[in-house]
Amino acid sequence: MTQIFQPHASLRGHYAGFVTRSIAFVIDLVLVVLTQVTFLLIVRLVLDFFGLNALAQAIFEPTEATDSSLLIVLLRWGLALFGGSVLFNVYVIAFWLLVNRTIGQAILGLRVMRTDGQPLKLGPAVRRVIGYYVSFFALFIGFLWILLDDRRQGWHDKLADTVVVYDWDARLGRRLREWLETHRPAVVAPVEPPDSRLQG
């Protein structure tokens, strides 16, 4: 019998792993930070334009007396983190509901969906965001769980009953493809018997 190897060069529909999802998350985080910084710059320009220089300086350039107050410093950082968190939450939920992926996930060719194959609705999307914070405050164990789970689900996926899959034909690297070819069971094709008419 002849052994025929049929390697799967495409990752479409496969569960996305930890590294790919982490890169997508970092891309989204950078986009949110850039958006927040841009917004603050616009606010500063608007305040300067309307002659509110004193207010702009109090917000963006506190004096030494103000800066020395630990309460004020913590308040400023707290507001910045809170604003960034709200912006991130709105961003990911909106994109999950509209196109089933964030910009970072789209760049990496990923899609978020329910385990039954249906797109996310508002409830699961909110639970998934809550799961982000649960995974974060659990010393990132919820994110690292992706490495151990058969369906590559983190705690946020478990909470929202979601999975992340490849949505386009992401191609395997040459070394990984060769490794899969040598370790995947071969598809055995039956060899047809010779035609009896050719036998003398």
Report the radius of gyration as a whole number of Å.
Answer: 26 Å
Average pLDDT figure: 80
- Strands of the widest sheet, in order across it, are 1-4
Structural class: mainly alpha
Following the backbone from N to C, one meets helices and strands in this order, namely: EHHHHHEHHHEHE
Distance linking N and C termini? 24 Å
Counting structural domains, the number is 1
Q: Report low-confidence residues grouped into runs of 5 or more.
A: 1-8, 186-191
| Count of DSSP strands | 4
Q: Tally the helices: what do you get? A: 9
What fraction, in percent, of the residue positions are helical? Answer: 55-70%
In terms of DSSP E residues, the strand content is 5-15%
Q: How does the major sheet shape up?
A: 2 strands, antiparallel
Gross geometry = elongated
